[in-house]
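Now for one record:
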Amino acid sequence: MFVASRMTRHPVSVTSDATIQQADRLMKKHKFHRMLVVDNGKLVGYFSDRDIMRVAPSPATTLSKFEIRSLLDKISVRDIMHEKVITVNEGATLEEAALIMYQNKVGGLPVVSDVGAVVGIITATDILKTFIKVMGLIGGKTRLTLEVDNKVGVIADITKIFADKGINIDSFITCRHKNNRYELVVRLDENAELEEVKKILDERGYKVVHSVDIG
């Protein structure tokens, strides 16, 4: 999965010479908390609703509405925007985008092309939706968690056990556990007959530590 296939294309943005009042109206219209600043197709910054609040008059002000509008019309987006923006390339994988978000503690990333043009935006919600879709969770899955030793042939042995019983494995994930052991997460079609398989797994030393139907 690549960012380009899951991002929102043509994100709403403003130019750096837009007024604070124009930007505020646009953010409220689309219910945004952050907005990109794009000049001539190139990303030059971003700002948030907090940045607008920082320069707006206090609610306790004695200024009239006309005076407030006049004041905000004198302040442009470039005066409050942050010029350092963390981005991701449209050719990056979703795993790369997720790692960048995690490392920088952000919930979304502008997506840029190889020449630096803004082509979309990818959010943590987009990645979560993809995860749910890829895992087939909405359609219903049975999830088994096995605890196994870290040794050659484990995965081949376990998959053969399921194959011999005519049970198709939908997905298989390995997670490092502790004491040189691993947790294997096996997803199968919901309501698969597993009692005999669990017994065989246990006899082979593969402990089933958890089982649940999801979706």
Summary: The CA atoms of residues 48 and 119 lie 20 Å apart.
